[in-house]
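Milestone 3.1: sequence recovery, worked example.
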C-alpha cells in the first residue's frame, strides 16, 4: 500500500521513487545508497559525496509514529544498515562513494530512532 508523505525535502539529491529506492547525488549522478521503502517512519541524512557535493534528505509520513531515542547502534547485514531490535533493513549507504554522513532514521516496526555519524575516508 502506498504511504502518504508528510514532509519531504531533498537537496542536491534524487530518489529513484517517491520515498525510496536508489539515492543519487546531483553533483556526479552516482548512486550513493538505497533507501528501503517500507521499513522506516522518518529519515534525515546529510552527506558529503566524494565529488564534493553535499546532499540532504528529510522524509516522513502522515501515518508515521514519533520514534523514541535508542542508544543501540544500527547493525550491518550484507551492507545494509538494519534495526538492531528486529533486523529490518533500513538503508544502504555506499561508504566508498561518500566522504562522510550523518544519519537519523526511525524504524517503522519498533519505533526505535537511530543515529549514525561516520567519516568514511
Ligand atoms: Zn557526487
Ligand atoms: Zn526496529
Amino acid at each position: 500500500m502506498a504511504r502518504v508523505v508528510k514532509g519531504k525535502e531533498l537537496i542536491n539529491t534524487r530518489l529513484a521513487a517517491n520515498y525510496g529506492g536508489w539515492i543519487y547525488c546531483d553533483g556526479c549522478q552516482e548512486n550513493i545508497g538505497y533507501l528501503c521503502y517500507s521499513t522506516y517512519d522518518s529519515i534525515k541524512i546529510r552527506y558529503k559525496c566524494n565529488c564534493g557535493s553535499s546532499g540532504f534528505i528529510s522524509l516522513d509520513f502522515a501515518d508515521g509514529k514519533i520514534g523514541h531515542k535508542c542508544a543501540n547502534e544500527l547493525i550491518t547485514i550484507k551492507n545494509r544498515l538494519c534495526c538492531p531490535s528486529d533486523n529490518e533493513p533500513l538503508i544502504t549507504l555506499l561508504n566508498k562513494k561518500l566522504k562522510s554522513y550523518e544519519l537519523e532514521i526511525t524504524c517503522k516496526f519498533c519505533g526505535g530512532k537511530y543515529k549514525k555519524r561516520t567519516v568514511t575516508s
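The two ends are 39 Å apart (CA to CA). Residues 83, 85-86, 88, 107, 109-110, 112 surround zinc ion (ligand 2) (CB under 6 Å).
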